[in-house]
Structures are given as C-alpha cells and as structure tokens.
Amino acid sequence: MTELRDAAMTSKAWPFEEARKLVKRYAKAPPEKGYVLFETGYGPSGLPHIGTFGEVARTTMVRRAFEALSDIPTKLVCFSDDMDGMRKVPENVPDPEQLTEHMHKPLTDVPDPFKEFDSFGNHNNAMLRRFLDTFGFEYEFASATDYYKNGKFDGMLLRAAERYDDVMAVMLPSLREERQKTYSIFLPISPTTGRVLYVPMKEVNAGDGTITFEDEDGTDVTMPVTGGNVKLQWKPDFGMRWAALDVDFEMYGKDHSTNTPIYDKICRVLGGKAPEHFTYELFLDDQGQKISKSAGNGLSVDEWLTYAPSESLGYFMFQKPKTAKRLYFDSIPKAMDEYHQQLRAFPDQELTKQLANPVWHMHRGQPPASDMDVSFSMLLNLASAAGAENKDQMWGFIRKYAPDATPETHPGLDEAAAGAVRYYNDHVLPTKTRRAPFAQEARALSDLRDRLAAVPEGQSGEELQQVVYDVGKEHEFENLRDWFKALYQVLLGQDAGPRFGNFIELYGVSETVALIDESLA
After folding, report:
1. Does residue 508 lie in a domain region?
2. Which of 146, 185, 194, 294 could form a disulfide with 236 if both were Cys (CB 3.0 to 4.6 A apart)?
3. Domain with 415 in it
4. Does residue 239 fall inside a structural domain?
C-alpha cells in the first residue's frame, strides 16, 4: 500500500492530479462529516445520455484515485434537480398534449405520461437510477424535491434569506440590466397554480424567514422560504447545495466554467467551503460541431453499446477530458482496440505506468485479462470482406487464426464479433463502394494474387505482410501508402484498415486470392 501511495502521489494521470487536491484539502484533519463527498448533478427533464455516463464515470475515477491515496471514506451523490419547472413539453412521450396544462410546474408535480410513476420527475429519476445501476456505479441518489420539502435545505434557505443582499450582490453583476430589475434568488411555488414563478420579491423578511410576492392571480402572498414553498434559481441553488451538503468535489462541462466563480462565492456567502472542481471539454460530432440533444447530432449510450461494451466507452471518457473530442460512430472501433491494447500491456508494466494506464482507473487497479485475440478493426475488415450477416460466419474465420478460441472461452471476442457484424451492416455496408483498380494497381494486384497462390500453408501475418510489401515496391508505387490504400479501396471498399498481412492470415490466403480475382474481374 505504501508503494502504491508513493507512486500515486507523483502520477501524472489526471484522476490522481485531481485526487491530490482533495488530499491537500484535508491534510490537517479529516472532514467533520466523516467522509469526502463527490457530487454529480442531473436535470431530469429527459432521459440520461452519454454526457451523464461520462460525468459519473469520470467522477468515479477521481474517487477511486483518492481512495488509493487516503483512508478517509468517500461517498458519491447523484443529485436530481427534479423540482425545476417543466419549461417545454417533451416530444418523445405518449400523448404530449396532456402535459401542456402542467407547464412550469415542478417536474415531480407533473403527471407521468408513461403512467408508471406518480410523477414525470420520478419516472425520469427511476430511469437515471436504472441507467447508473446498469453500469455498476456506486452512488447515493438525492432528489431536490425531497431535500426542499423534507427540510434538508431549510437551514440554508433561512441563511439565504438572512444574507439575501449578499447573495444578490453576487448574482446581479452577471445579469442583463433589464433582468436585474425583476430578478430574485428565490422562486416561489404558486399556492394557486402550483407553478414555479419567476417574479420579483416585494419583501424578504430575514427575521421570520418569509418572502412576499405577487401571485399569478394578482394577490400578494407571504410564505416561508422553508418546507418546499420555494426553490432557488439554478446558479444560487448550485452554490447553496455545495454549502448544505459540504460537497468536496464536482465536475461539469465547459459550458458551466464561466459560472464557477459565482457558484463558489455563493457557497462561501452561505458559510460553506467551495469544493474542488474540474471542468471538462464538450463533445463534438463528426463535423466538429458541439453535440446537442435537441439537435440530435450526438451518439447515444445505447447506440455505442449496440456495437461495443461499456468498458470501451469508459476508456473513451478517460482520454484527455480537457480536450474537445469527436464522438461519433467511428470512435467506437478505435476506443475498443485501444482499450484492449492497454489491458494486454498492463500486467507487464511497472507500477508507475500501471497507474497511468486507463484500465487501472476503470477497474480499481485490477483490470481483467483481454480475450480479444483478434482486434475489433480486424473483425470489421473481416465482416466487410465476407459480407458477414451473423457472428457464426465470423467464427469460421476466427478459428483458423486462433484455433483454441471458442465463444465459451472467449466471451469478449464473441461479443465483439457480433458487434462488428452489426457495425458493418449499419455503418459500412450502406456506403460501401469498391472501386475498380487503375492500370498500375491492376498489374500489382494480379502479381500479388499469383504470389499468394504460391505461398506455403501456415504463413504468419508478418510473412504475408512482406509479400504484400514486396509487390508494392517492385511495382514502383512512389508512396507505399498508396499501394495499401488501393488494396483497401479495391478489395474492401474502404480507405484504411489494420495490417494487410494480418488480414490475409485471418481471412485466409485462398479466400484473399478469390477476393482479388473478383475485384480484377
């Protein structure tokens, strides 16, 4: 353990860099609450998405890194802002028109259109918990409605009334002049309509902890800030929650970064200590545009898991979180292969390199062994060459390459073979076009065909790669990359792939000869 901690204290892996901030935070004494609290926030207006997965996965990585550095217990709270008013009716629910009359009510007061739970907010909360449980995250769920209505925030709300002017002084400079005239940190729940009201305060009485405002029917209403009668605007709510729960660490997307000083100041005004925070870059689509749920240009968790296991998605999330990354279907094969490369490398690495290896952070320092005897990219090329329609066809080729492998002994490889077939049929086949070879390429292909037909059985991928290389060289391709690119374009209908000699070994020499004959014809 001492050796691990010593190495972790100097590791440059980003989860350890973040975890060391927490070690420093409690260098003099452990937290009075008895644990270090990690938090992630969730707006339950829709279903969980790939950003939700990334935030919880990355926070968990920092949590595990901290646990390697310290004996202080930890907790992760996933907090749902389910008391927010419903600002628009979602389109992807049954009979959306029925929700129109409930606009601006707290989500936990809106009927569940699926008729499975007592509110739309609770329905989406259940989807969040099911989502997190599917991936085995360890967390405690917290509901804003529960915290506001059951008095868990009452102390902080009374303090917000006492220090109302100080909190407003933090908020007002961040608002447009017109908005400043009507802004209040308190959002009352109308006693007549049940809606969340964005109205100015006529009075904030710190002495008795009440607010006075004009209700929707034009009458003045005075009500306590406690007991779920009000909620806070989202920026003050952020800082108040940090102070109320004594949050130690929270990460969020770059779109929150300009608000971080506001969250911190409000937390401090309310008597709390601002947490350590980490801002990650947002995801881009294949065109370099920001991914948006409303624009529909993203990649969902379900779509990723259709082709590859969640570990490959976790690997993708680990990589360079402060760098904007393109997240689209072509990300999947690359992440899958790199994840297994790291799994294979891990056992032989010295401790410092293991701590920098993503799989240490994904598997709490005990990653499984890889059973991917064939890379995912190679499986895709195999599916493309064979026009595979199911994984059984793939196993016919895999057994030639790895005779001892079976679906039972290599379940990961079996799952990958099935995913590769689905990926090929969904994303390669629809745009697959095999072009005719140019004259120089045709001569070289014909030569390669004859040489392959004459090679002895049992040639390794390296030996077959040399044959391909020699042909390209002798046919005077200025750049051998052009030769290999031609092979993939003419034979497989794509621009790139793994080493062609390894592909021949897996697909089969005679099958490759037949593929060349077909292309030349």
Report:
1. yes
2. 185
3. 376-431
4. no
The predicted model scores a pTM of 0.91
Are the CB atoms for 23 and 64 separated by under 8 Å? no
**Do 426 and 400 share a structural domain?**
yes
Domain count across the chain: 4
**Plot region of 139 (φ>0 → left; ψ -120 to 50 → alpha; else → beta):** beta
Is position 199 within any domain?
A: no
User: Is 403 part of any domain?
Assistant: yes
447 and 325 belong to one structural domain: no
Please check whether residues 419 and 291 belong to one and the same domain: no
Q: Which two tokens stand for residue 402?
A: 């790895």
Secondary structure of residue 151 in the 3-state scheme: coil
Please give the Cα distance from 513 to 356 (Å, whole number). 44
- Burial class from Cβ neighbours inside 10 Å (0-12, 13-18, 19+) for residue 18 reads buried
Q: Are the C-beta atoms of residues 412 and 371 closer than 8 Å to each other? A: yes
Residues 426 and 449 occupy one common structural domain: no
Each of the 521 residues of the chain gets a pLDDT tens digit; together they read: 689 999 999 999 999 999 999 999 999 999 999 999 999 999 887 777 788 899 999 999 999 999 999 999 999 999 999 999 999 888 778 888 888 999 999 999 999 999 999 999 999 999 999 999 999 999 999 999 999 999 999 999 999 999 999 999 999 999 999 999 999 999 999 999 999 999 999 999 999 999 999 999 999 999 999 999 999 999 999 999 999 999 999 999 898 889 999 999 999 999 999 999 999 998 887 777 776 655 556 678 888 999 999 999 999 999 999 998 888 888 999 999 999 999 999 999 999 999 999 999 999 999 999 999 999 999 998 998 888 889 999 998 898 888 899 999 999 999 999 999 999 999 888 888 889 999 999 999 999 999 999 999 889 999 999 999 999 999 999 899 999 999 999 998 888 877 899 899 989 999 999 999 999 98
**Which amino acid, one-letter code, is at 242?**
W
Residues 321 and 444 in one domain: no
CATH code where residue 17 lies: 3.40.50.620
Residues 403 and 451 in one domain: no
Same domain, 415 and 501: no
What's the chain's Rg over C-alpha atoms? 29
